[in-house]
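Hey,

The postdoc asked me to send both predictions to you directly instead of through the lab channel. I've kept everything plain text so nothing gets mangled by the mail client. Protein one:
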Amino acid sequence: MKILVTGSTGLVGTALAEALARNGHTVCRLMRPQSVVAAGTKKGFDVAWNPTTGELGGAAVGADAVVNLAGASIAGGRWTTERKALLRTSRIETTRALVNALAKMNARPRVLVSASAIGIYGDRGDEVLTEESKTGTDFLATLAQEWEGEALKAEALGIRVVLARFGIILARHGGALAKMLLPFKLGAGGRLGSGQQWMSWVTLDDVVGILRFAMEGAPGKGAPNAASVRGAINVVAPQPVRNTEFTKVLAKALHRPALFPAPAFALRLALGEMADALLLSSQRVAPQRLQQLGYSFLHAELSKALNAVLEKH
């Protein structure tokens, strides 16, 4: 397959591009003029991409699939008015520009897999959330709804659309886990706030597997084909845990204590609105659609997942 990837320099994009290249796919990295690729991470080839003008390089012609991972980091800075504007434009306007570019193609890709997030559900306590659950009303929920809305416009072009609602992605070298490791290694880790909030996690290996599943379907006779994978899918492992449990399991995996809880007021003082949205909110999310489709998780249980992730270099 020839696959276009936006956001290819990020945590997920880099891992996905490497996996696709290893398996013989042609990876076309849609690159903005100012983008820089780190040495040793370049898989596939670059295609000029300007979301502001909508211009897409001719090398994109003939693509079978598009994976849209573009978006500034949610945890990349305090949520000032300016930061919120960047979070919106880097997702909503970029996705809009991408779909408009696809509309101009004579031969369009068969599928668009577009990133989203379980933040779309808002803070929901102990409620089990599936793809059919209602969406939330806070900033992240509204952002995700608009983001998904832009991607879904590709359906009118005859393109199958999959909305990948990512949970907390566990990887040693980036994302949320990488930020957690230092205080634990120093013996200063602990629960966040009450610790009763649910954390819906997934390993980076499974994220890559699920994105490939969304594009290609499942291997093997009698398995669902790719055409049956469409709409929203919760990209989370089947066993979410409370923050207290996550803390204990991580501490055990690192052979460190977990004695220093971070009070909610201190987190809010340090991070503002972002503390509630990213650290203190509770989302008990089930991968209902993936389980219905028969996706087989590489890492379904937290302790084994963390051990596998932490063993990687």
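Protein two:
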Amino acid sequence: MAEGWALALASQRFEPGYFSFSSAGLEAHGLNPRAVDVMAQNGVDISAHTSDVLTDEMLAAADLVVSVCSNADTNCPLLPAGTVKRHLPFTDPAGATGTETDIGACFQSVCGEIRDAMVMLIQELSANQPMSVRQDSGEHLFQQSDVEVQSRSSVYQGFLKVDRLYLRHQLFEGGWSERLERELLIKEQAVGVLLLDPDTDQLVMVRQFRVGMLWQRESPWPLELVAGMVDKEETPEAVALRETREETGLTISGLVKICEYFNSPGASTEKVTLFCAKVDAKTAGGIHGLKHEHEDIKVVVIPREQAIEGIRSGEFNNAMSMIALQWLELNQKTLNKLWA
């Protein structure tokens, strides 16, 4: 998929031969039919591609080698002098489990991630910018092993879960910190979905009560993205499908991954994955949600431009919505081409 996207994107901006792309692996596993199908859905034909094994000749001819999985990154052969290596980690969709819909959503999501990465890579190459390879920056990065958790206990378990940790960690100037006491809010991974109707240029969003906004100047019924928590053994893509159905009654297509971020890493374990998806806004509306979860969710349809103006005016002040809407403003043209 990476080679297919790189060739397709480069052909839109440059003359043939300006860039040369080829792909190979440490082993040959054959062409995945699901990869062929999802690329075809996105307007790129890779049916004639082959599954090849990386050779010394290919490495010698390369200016840049990009690995896309941890195994290839770890076991990449020694590169010739002057050849730059870049690692772009993607989830292997071939390992996806669940229903056909879940597996298809995973392939579509990874396909979108690869496309976005190839867009950025080609922009970087065409601007003749140096490769920003983190391991070549000279900065020493601390890892999990540089933290010593001396004890951990549960402080509270209710709607929220809180643990108390005693720990110490390595210091930038050397040595160890003093013993620290920290309370940690335990939250499962969350997913947010920005729902866009490209035909009407409208967004489908939701309102529901948020206790964290009580006693604030703003209404505690903010305008937000569809969102929910990841259950055990559930992919973020599957959550995006499920939560959209539960909160809006709509079915999504063209799922594109926006980003991942930690919501408040100083005090919480929550990690958020954001997506953008295509919906039919003409059928959107009403009150939705699961009664046993005490959900009372109102669906709101607004023009995309109005939402973007809401970022400028401060009407949108929750992180999920702000990040997703700003991403949409930056990637609108690319998204239109993808969904065309």
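Summary for protein two, as requested: DSSP finds eight helices and 13 strands in the chain.

Thanks,
C.
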